[in-house]
Amino acid sequence: MDNDHLKKIVEGALLASGRSLDIGHLQGLFDIDQVPAKDQLLAVLEDIENECGNRGYELTKTASGYRFQVRQELAPWINRLWEEKPKKYSRALLETLALIAYRQPLTRGDIEEIRGVSVSSEIVKTLLEREWVRVVGHRDVPGRPALYATTREFLDYFNLKSLEDLPALSEIRDIDSIDPELSLQVAETTENAEEQLSDSLEESAVEQEMPESDEESRVQQN
Amino acid sequence: MDNDHLKKIVEGALLASGRSLDIGHLQGLFDIDQVPAKDQLLAVLEDIENECGNRGYELTKTASGYRFQVRQELAPWINRLWEEKPKKYSRALLETLALIAYRQPLTRGDIEEIRGVSVSSEIVKTLLEREWVRVVGHRDVPGRPALYATTREFLDYFNLKSLEDLPALSEIRDIDSIDPELSLQVAETTENAEEQLSDSLEESAVEQEMPESDEESRVQQN
Amino acid sequence: MALSTSANRGSMAPQTVPEVDPSQDIPAAELHSHPLQEEMPFAMIMGRQITELPKDLYIPPEALEVFLEAFEGPLDLLLYMIRRQNLDILEINVAEITRQYMAYIDMMQAMQLELAAEYLLMAAMLAEIKSRMLLPRQAVEEEEEDPRAELIRRLQEYERFKQAAEDIDELPRLGRDVFMATAKEPDRQSERPQPDVAMKEILLSLADVLRRAEMFESHKVQLEKLSTRERMSQVMETLRDKQFVPFVSLFRLSEGRSGVVVTFLAIMELIKESLVEIVQSESYGPIHVKAR
Domains in chain B, please, with CATH? Predict the structure, then answer.
């Protein structure tokens, strides 16, 4: 099959499907004796991407594959299509989501510990229903609390290819009114806590690497 | 606003909306002092239409406005997106069908009596939709239950001229080719397991075939 | 545009007024979230304007609920105090705060007791810190961690994720900043293919059923001659939706003697199973058959 025809099929499939398609999905569109090679598909996808240059949409790759999406700079006009404004999420929900994204897998108790307030069931329910978060296991302590991790849908929704694309976690900031001696102590205790956390990360099989806070810079400060 | 920018907005809106947009909708995307004239929009739409010439989609005008549509000629590939593999009928469905074929006309109650478990509505519905079975009357007892019989389509599918062409019961016995006494024993030991099996099968009429317990080998061991 | 509501979201400085989810139900309070207009009332409480957040931890009781809604908990509130109001946690008048927080308890009965408990816990923590700072240091001092360290560690850790939440909120989001591009799909041509069944599968299934059934009531599964059962179905089909059908019309002479016998047996069986009724209005009169 020539590349022009292939391109049309890929274009059509991406627009018709309404979701991201990966190479495997695209190959599945063809008869068994006509399946295009991965390289050929990648070349065609690159062509398509280049041709979008001056258009109202672009080809993007997210966690679950390729999709066409309307460009961000057009949002002010596009958003007038809908009666309702795009949903705004509460800080409580975003903070909970951030903790799960950066510290996964972790329990509700872990989240409450860091946020200093209880996490409402409503928030957890919303995150699960949106399929941004799922239960990946249970911690082996009394009560066997659920361990939460983010999903591919979460990455897709926020336009991320992988967890590594998350904005880097900010450094720990000094609390100004505390003298330097004290802040040293603080950094030490924090590091212990981090070690424990990364231990728990290794325990469960979550494949993605976390964007870790840059410990080096903190060490230099000290 | 220049035509290039306008074109991007129109393109983006048509792709994002998922429905047809008319000129009024498109004009509604703009601030009151920036609303493009109808003529300008029509010109832009024509541009967009022309640029689709060699792509996998086209701009079409429907009764309710404009929308992008994946080209019909790509249907053979695109439709694979939604193609589902044929599933297998459950054991419960096959047993029900067999009983209707050999004991027709009979009611659901008759089938349940012989099979020893209830027959789900889903199974009956599937058989009726497949047009292998139909209702030929009602038994004159309380509730007036429907009497089921097989159809011409059933005979056609299995290449039978009439029900008399169905394999005789003796042939069915041959399939087992087991000493009746032994088979009775086996039936007793497996009775509970089988009942559970059919119960779980009942839940949906269509599902994967269960790996049947290999009675023959077990019989030989006895 | 959604982004415009957070002019300084990207900066590290906490906002003067934390954003409040507008969907949250805050009774008797009008909140606004513009960080720059400090003259605007932060909240209306019983007709009185609250123009700014408190400068320290003394929160007027009538405003407490609103403040609690505005902050994501005591850590958030403390962070705000430290960063914005240059609150020195060493200088807190713990006795005063404790007295005030205890007074809140009564009010809390009717409000969000659970949430308030977290603030009370914080007050207790601050009080503990303060009291330990005031105690004369013992010789074992070295081994003892500074009482503030744990609180500071938590504040710092919380601040990182508060920032992370804001960063995530900034990411281009599907349906707000970018949009899935779709076009109408071509007409669907294929339906899901029907499952294939082989006759052997049916026979095997029947064998299974019969084996199971034989165990209990072997007499039930005496299969009649198939032709009779089939003819029963055919007769039922003929009678369907009809009133009375002449008995003789059910027979086909072309089928010969055996055909007539089969039909007769089928009708007898149908009568026996109460599926049809048979009517003869007078002796030697025509016989009619009707489905029951």
Answer: 3-70 (1.10.10.10), 91-212 (1.10.10.10)
